[in-house]
């Protein structure tokens, strides 16, 4: 063999990390690439947006994770271009448009870049609604929500107070349900307690779902339970409510009704990360790359796609959730190792482990082992599974302490409006000082 | 009496909080104002810049602190203008230049706005050096330092690698010494361990102090100990080194030597917060307001200045440290209560509690009870005092867990390069959507 098999993995999410882990120690040269220096534990991101836990509790340095994985290196970079002919991918420092890219050859390339918010072309949604997909979204949303309460204290005009204190969440899937519940627990407990200038009946939380019930895709009983629980927590659940337009201070619902709100959170849709489409790969309507049942690109042997970004042909695309990405990551790693041994890869098959979503204190829904659970048992299950899956001992312990403290005191200590603008401006001086990476 | 005595406190730092606490429950109407919604525990801020603890561990929501203080309200706002004649102060939402200010009358006004970095007119320092005074400075510096290592991995030019991996700290006072030590512990342990593309001899940390020794103002033995310890930690300590100019990628030292470095941290000077000067109050060369020995402004009865912002006449101005601000906060509260009872305020006298500064693992210096300590005893004292003083039970516990974890593992889990620019941009949509506060 002329060289060790070179594998480049784009994306250090659940799928990319699993592939890297499975390829470690197999004598391959694995380069893992992400534009962030951390892995994001997405299932708890909504809690950052609700000031329940801090960003560092769901973000974990990738280098720390891969440190003991033999043969795996990490590079914080953006993948700019794929050249299937020369079998190279171009990498450049994130956010630095001027930097000359570094051209990296590969034998196998795994595209595990995940997904972005999908606004379905609803006018104004991309400009005015807050997505909740990345750590920075959680931080910006937290600042914005807490800022609404600080602002309302200084407002005397009743209509302006309504706009500041109305929070609309679009999308009744797991993220929307979880965020609505977490926001209600933040707003109606700690925020009202500490904002004596705001009356109990002023804040309003509305959850809009276009379909007939919450949590589409799981047994109806779970969605109905979630709706009842949220209603008891003073969240207005509106099903059959399609959003027609989002404005800077309002949401227009099909049928003509307009909700005046300075906060619109968008959890309604997800689409494959933009790079696939930019590179001209064959994508479906959701921006997911059409790959063979083996997850390999028909057009380019040795290029694999997995997780939210992959739409294997010949079946309904699997849901865009972490378990799919993890299973596909393991599958692609096995396929590459087979290929190295001159064996053929096999088609991927998804084993559905179920669903877990929390609504609030002692309230959750679960579908596991072919059964459904609600209430406290589901909640305990949810907490256990998420704590166990959180990467890194310290994070687990810190999250446990945070949760226990919140649970006992109905408190939220991460209620910080961080000066992101000032911090970003200060950081810019560092960027401007640096010469191009590859002069 | 026509109305309850109205007290406005500008600044929720150590001094402002202490004043509010002492005035609570005394039948006064107290309005505490800060442009952040949190109190910053400044003594541990350098640890944020060294990825040792997270921002939420040193920032604590003001509303949570004042919740049980009877008669004390909080407003997140900037103080824009003081009118001593009408005895009013104008407040406006932070960062919103267009907002019409709210005019608030007072009987007593306490200016406790603290201090900013002081660059002494050194060319380029304000533009290119990183200050370390506010939470956002800590976050930006953390991003920048971690970013230098990620960048260096992609650099092949030796000169470019030197610039990326040289870190210059200007100022050998407590903050400079503490940050130099914390940075050495970050760089030479976790960062080198996880950046296998960077050689042990490449990173360079230089601490520049213009005076003859480190920690000016404390017994020489402590400064000498700090210098020896830092030297053992591979920090180059240069005393008698005055900075003449800071450029985008270099620091010029008096005498002609130039250090090439993409990171320059400025801890060399502090001056009173700018608002006093903008309002035309009588300030000294350090921007501190000249007040009577009672801390009252001679020009306006009932206007008090304390902490870093105050320079009482008739003595050397006290050092710009937290104990002074806390003692002055208590003193001003007592004086206001005396005035309410028609008694005259007394001059402030500082009782120096000593000094504590940490250099690293098991290494610190202390001056307490007229004695000096170094090494492990000083370090244990330092940790105990700071944990005890941290506001909020959860923060204490979380910081303890962080420290214990770092201590056992030589690890740093908060090594996150947060996308501040993206978060700030996302937050802007919230700002632009909001109409002026007081239409």
Number of domains as seen in the coordinates of chain A: 2
CATH topology of the largest domain in chain A: FAD/NAD(P)-binding domain
- Major sheet of chain A, described briefly? 5 strands, parallel
Estimate the global geometry of chain A from the Cα principal axes.
globular
Q: Oligomerization state of this entry?
A: homodimer
Which superfamily, in CATH terms, is the homologous superfamily of the largest domain in chain A?
FAD/NAD(P)-binding domain
Structural class of chain A: alpha/beta
How are the strands of the largest sheet of chain A arranged? 5-2-1-9-21
First CA to last CA of chain A: what distance?
Answer: 34 Å
Q: Identify the biggest protein-protein contact and residues per side.
A: A-B, 88 and 88 residues
Poorly predicted runs of chain A: 435-439
> Mean pLDDT of chain A, nearest integer?
92
Percent of sequence in beta strands of chain A: 15-25%
Radius of gyration of chain A: 23 Å
Plain-language structure description:
Chain A has 13 helices and 25 strands. By secondary structure, chain A is α/β, with parallel strands linked by helices. Chain A folds into 2 domains: 6-117 and 270-340, FAD/NAD(P)-binding domain (3-Layer(bba) Sandwich), CATH 3.50.50.60; 125-267 and 354-390, FAD/NAD(P)-binding domain (3-Layer(bba) Sandwich), CATH 3.50.50.100. A 5-stranded parallel sheet of chain A has the order 5-2-1-9-21. Chain A has a 5-stranded parallel sheet with strand order 11-18-12-13-14. Chain A starts with 5 loop residues before the first strand and ends in a 6-residue tail after the last helix. The interface between A and B is large, with 88 and 88 residues.
């Amino acid at each position: 063999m002329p060289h060790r098999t070179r594998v480049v993995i784009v994306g250090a999410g659940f799928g990319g990390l699993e592939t890297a882990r499975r390829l470690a120690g197999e004598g391959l040269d694995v380069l893992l690439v992400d534009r962030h220096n951390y892995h994001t534990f997405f299932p708890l991101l909504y809690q950052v947006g609700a000031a329940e836990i801090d960003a560092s509790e769901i973000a974990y340095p990738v280098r720390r994770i891969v440190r003991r994985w033999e043969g795996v290196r990490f590079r914080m970079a953006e993948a700019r271009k794929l050249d299937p002919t020369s079998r190279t991918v171009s990498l450049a420092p994130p956010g630095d448009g001027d930097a000359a890219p570094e051209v990296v050859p590969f034998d196998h390339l795994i595209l595990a870049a995940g997904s972005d918010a999908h606004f379905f072309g609803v006018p104004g949604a991309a400009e005015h609604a807050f997505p909740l997909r990345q750590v920075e979204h959680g931080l910006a949303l937290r600042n914005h929500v807490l800022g609404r309460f600080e602002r309302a204290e200084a407002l005397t005009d009743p209509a302006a107070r309504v706009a500041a204190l109305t929070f609309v969440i679009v999308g009744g899937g797991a993220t929307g349900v979880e965020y609505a519940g977490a926001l209600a627990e933040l707003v109606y407990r700690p925020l009202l307690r500490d904002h004596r200038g705001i009356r109990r009946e002023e804040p309003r939380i509305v959850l809009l779902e276009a379909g007939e019930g919450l949590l589409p895709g799981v047994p109806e009983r779970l969605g109905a339970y979630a709706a009842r629980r949220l209603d008891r927590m003073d969240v207005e659940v509106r099903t059959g409510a399609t959003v027609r337009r989002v404005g800077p201070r309002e949401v227009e619902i099909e049928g003509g009704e307009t909700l005046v709100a300075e906060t619109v959170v968008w959890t309604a849709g997800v689409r494959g990360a933009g790079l696939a489409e930019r590179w001209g790969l064959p994508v479906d309507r959701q921006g997911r790359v059409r790959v063979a049942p083996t997850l390999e690109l028909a057009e380019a042997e040795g290029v694999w796609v997995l997780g939210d970004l992959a739409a294997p042909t010949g079946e309904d695309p699997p849901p865009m959730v972490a378990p799919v990405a993890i299973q596909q990551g393991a599958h692609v790693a096995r396929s590459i190792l087979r290929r190295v041994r001159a064996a053929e890869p096999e088609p991927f098959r998804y084993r559905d482990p179920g669903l877990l979503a929390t609504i609030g204190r002692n309230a959750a829904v679960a579908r596991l082992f072919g059964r459904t659970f609600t209430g406290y048992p589901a909640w305990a299950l949810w907490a256990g599974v998420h704590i166990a899956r959180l990467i890194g001992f310290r994070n687990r312990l810190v999250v446990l302490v945070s949760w226990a403290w919140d649970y006992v005191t109905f408190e939220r200590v991460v209620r910080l409006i961080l000066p992101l603008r000032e911090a970003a401006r200060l950081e810019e001086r560092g960027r401007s000082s640096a010469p191009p990476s590859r002069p």
